[in-house]
Amino acid sequence: MGTRISCIFVFAAGVCLLAGCASHGEQVLQGEWLQPVPGMAPLWQGFRLEADGTAGSVGMATLQYETWRWQGDDLLLSGRSIGNGQTIRMVDTLRIVRLTADTLVVARGADEEVFVRNK
């Protein structure tokens, strides 16, 4: 009986630990992430991730992010793409390659993009 209770305790502790890691990861992702606009060096573009799951685009008038979530290894950015008189609902799926306190590297297919945290 004691072994069974110990196993249940270890399992419950593991679940709590994993839940805490996911929450901590989302906290690390929150903030504004920017990269130089290709070919327009003084300009920056990127996105803002809020604690309540809302998102916003930075420097991208035709791509409007509205919400975000972290699912497995992916950052999912949902919103609207606006152009040529039409608006299309979209989800941008970015695989998180590396995440530190000030750098976010994501992959879209074979292409990697580097973002830095705006402080």
Automatic annotation (TrEMBL):
Protein name: Lipocalin family protein
Keyword tags: Signal
UniProt xrefs under PROSITE patterns: PROKAR_LIPOPROTEIN
Domain (Lipocalin-like) ranges: 27-117
Signal peptide boundaries: 1-24
Keyword Plastid among record annotations: no
Organism: Candidatus Tidjanibacter faecipullorum
